[in-house]
Write a structure and sequence with these properties.
Blueprint: H1 3-15, E1 20-25, E2 28-29, E3 32-33, E4 54-59, H2 63-78, E5 84-89, H3 108-115, H4 119-129, H5 135-158, E6 188-192, H6 194-208, E7 212-216, H7 234-238, E8 243-245, H8 250-261, E9 268-272, H9 284-296, E10 305-311, H10 326-329, E11 335-338, H11 343-353, E12 359-365, E13 376-378, E14 391-394, E15 399-403, H12 407-422, E16 426-430, E17 433-435, H13 439-449, E18 452-459, H14 465-476, E19 485-489, H15 498-504, H16 508-519
């Protein structure tokens, strides 16, 4: 019933991939029978329209039919016949789990009948009645099997309990080291826009590492290169095997990136996870699964993925082209969250993401793509910025303003206005990375100024600024001379009207007025 099943089958069929999909249809979804879940009780028939997909239906309770069907599927795949869907009808003999009482929704007659389909008993009877295997031989095999299982169970039960100190191991892969030389910008040529900086960095890293791949919606469409042309020219230079389009299926895009990046540790996958950040929601199941894979595998699986998302408002995009999702991503252990405000930072941080193992969300403030004030000189093809290092954009003594993404520019303008009109010196911190967070720079600044104002474009209520405020209150309480204040969007969707959008989203004047009030507190 899940949409990602179709997405996977459709994608494999289109690419004629050597994949065998197995559906064990036991007739129930916990207590809900198939008849209440699908219009066609033969689930595999729902996918007959997919060209290139071979469908094999078999009796999953019959060991011989199941074995021959799987062998046929293997032979087809090995012969280059494309993907195969094996649909095995299997009667569920026991309850869904040890907490499920299937007697509450299944009759005694049904339970008695399904037990006659036990594949183990069917195989046993066949061996006795057809193959003439003696009962004593089967009993010996069964006793030997029980002993093996019992030994394994005893070994597991005797294993020592885990060390509580190990609970935080393998949350995130170690970050790749960055040399002092790499952190020094070269300042080459004319200033680059944020958009061109990202495009250039992708091309540089794809030239450096031939095991880097890119897919997503519209990313390879001739001269288009994504909705905002960020990947323009990528397929022309690196070819359709490394840069290619994906269906409008965000779950499929993230899920395939997770699977493919596991193929070898030297593979990096860049995905335009959705045309806009607002469209990522169908992929959240895959996002959560991917974020946990390094942890649940004790570091054996590392999804080396950089998921790019055009984020934020101020473009008149309305409800579904203006969302900020960082508060969601920062709540998921295992994800690094990056959001640059200037072109040189975008280059250094993106390059580092493409050289560091793990799952990174690279949130691109789309309003800044071509803004003159977000431009910066080209720092060179080796420039790299380590994660968790905020940047003090302006020194100050009277209050600290903490921000990231587009509002960094509003904060800098407000700080200039505070200086010019009131001789107030505000220190402006550009976080650049939210996970990992540079708490040291924040705390040192607030201890110096004794006042903190947090500014972000996302909603104040439930926004990432609440975490920052809590950290400051906890670590700097003894030196605060005023309340920790926050500015963000109002608790409403972003309207289409530019007038209403400006009312909802934070503006320079909002930062100026609140900073002035805090400075005078």
């Amino acid at each position: 019933s899940e949409g990602y099943v179709f997405e996977a089958l459709n994608g494999a069929s289109r690419e004629r991939l050597p994949v065998i999909f197995v559906v064990q249809n036991n007739g129930y979804g916990i207590s809900v029978p198939v008849s209440e879940q699908t219009a066609n009780p033969i689930v595999s028939e729902n996918y007959r329209g997919l060209r290139g997909l071979t469908i094999i239906n078999c009796d999953g309770t019959n060991p011989f039919d199941a074995t021959s069907s799987m062998q046929r599927a293997v032979d087809l795949v090995h012969a280059g016949g494309g993907p195969v869907l094996v649909h095995a009808f299997c009667e569920r003999i026991n309850a869904h789990s040890n907490s499920d009482r299937h007697e509450a929704y299944r009759s005694d007659e049904e339970l008695a009948e399904v037990r006659t389909y036990d594949p183990y008993e069917r195989l046993r009877l066949h061996l006795l009645n057809v193959e003439d295997v003696e009962e004593v031989t089967l009993l010996a095999i069964e006793e030997e099997s029980k002993a093996i299982v019992q030994e394994a169970a005893e070994k597991a039960e005797a294993a020592p309990d885990p060390d509580p100190a190990s609970a935080m191991l393998f949350v995130m892969p170690e970050e790749s080291p960055v040399s002092t030389e790499a952190m020094t910008p070269a300042s080459e040529g004319e200033p680059l826009s944020l958009l061109n900086a990202i495009n250039l960095t992708l091309k540089q890293e794809f030239r450096r590492n031939p095991n880097t791949f890119l897919w997503g919606q519209d990313v390879a469409s001739k001269e288009k290169g994504g909705v905002f042309s960020v990947t323009k020219g990528m397929q022309q230079e690196f070819g359709p095997k490394r840069v290619f389009n994906a269906p409008i299926a965000e779950d499929f895009i993230v899920g395939t990136a997770n699977g493919f990046s596991r193929f070898r540790e030297d593979i990096w996958v860049v995905i335009e996870a959705a045309q806009f950040a607002d469209y990522l929601w169908p992929a959240m199941e895959q996002v959560v699964d991917t974020s946990h894979d390094f942890y649940r595998s004790n570091g054996q699986w590392t999804p080396n993925i950089v998921a790019r998302l055009a984020s934020g408002g101020n473009i008149g995009g309305g409800l579904y082209h203006s969302q900020n999702l960082e508060a969601v991503f920062t709540s998921l252990p295992g994800i690094r969250v990056i959001t640059p405000a200037f072109a040189d930072d975008a280059m250094g941080l993106l390059r580092h993401a493409l050289r560091t193992r793990g799952f990174t969300f690279f949130l691109e403030p789309k309003y800044l793509y071509n803004q003159v004030f977000a431009k910066a000189s080209n720092p060179g093809e080796h420039y790299e910025i380590p994660f968790g290092k905020a940047r003090v954009r302006r020194e100050g003594r009277d209050l600290t303003i903490i921000s990231y993404g587009t509002p960094v520019h509003w904060c800098l303008r407000a700080a200039t206005q505070l200086h010019d009109e009131h001789a107030i010196e505000a220190e402006v911190i550009d976080l650049r990375t939210l996970v990992p967070l540079d708490t040291e720079t924040i705390i040192n600044s607030v201890r110096k100024t004794s006042k903190a104002l947090i500014v972000h474009e996302d909603k104040v209520f439930g926004g990432f600024g609440g975490e920052l405020a809590a950290r400051i209150a906890e670590d700097c309480f003894d030196c605060l001379d005023g309340p920790v204040m926050r500015i963000g969007s109002k608790f409403a969707p972003v309207p289409f009207s530019k007038i209403l959008e400006r009312e909802i989203l934070p503006q320079v004047e909002d930062v100026f007025q609140k900073a002035l009030a805090l400075a005078k507190y």
